[in-house]
Amino acid sequence: MGDRCAIYIRVSTEEQAREGISIEAQKDRCVKYCEAKGWPVFRVYEDAGFSAGSTKRPAFRQLLEDVRKREFATLLVYKVDRFSRNLKDLITVLEELKSHGVNFTSVTEPIDTTSAMGEAFFQIIGVFAQLERGMVKERVKMAFDKKLQDGEYLNRAPLGYRYRNGALAVHEEEAERVRDIFAMWAAGVHYREIAEKASVPVSTLYTIVRNPTYVGKIQYRGKLYQGVHQALVDEELFERVNALIGCESHPDDAESPD
To answer: According to the model, what pLDDT value does residue 18 have?
Structure first.
């Protein structure tokens, strides 16, 4: 193990665009820090485009494997939140590092886990990193809630629609196919024949006729909201078709989504 140092760097696409803390910038600072300390660099572990809220990162997992093999003496990061923003994960990994005799150090924060003060400071930093992550989640939820209140569609445009200037707009050719699907189903045409005429798989057919988007609604986490997009069928037809589906019993119904 000697005095070799491993460097871990991470950035998500959003963070790089917002903060400018690129992979190369982190690497440069960390390598220079090692040079100043006289630590030979064992390896640079890079996770580009991965969130710090999860440990499911390839380089992160490889790093932990090398920790268990005692390949290096010190783990260096540019900043704690590059490593993790989940306090539980931070503490768990810190304990594993300690059990294998590996020190944890940050370029931009006075952390050295070989001392009691350094370990305490590390946990305090972890609390704030987790707080920041929670605040980001709250801001995202608020943004989603605002979009729902404004009737904005949040998912990929379904058959019959296209996004235009950020909003759902009717694609007339596809919209006619959707209307025909509902009309045929209401008229008692067999679902297999409808799927063939509409050139869609049976499973997709069921998804279409059960999608409240076509009556101007938005479904999100099991709740319905009024959308601002144009409906393709009226609610009476939509309810009639879905009532017919509830009365049917086909061997292929296992293909349809719940």
So the answer is: 52
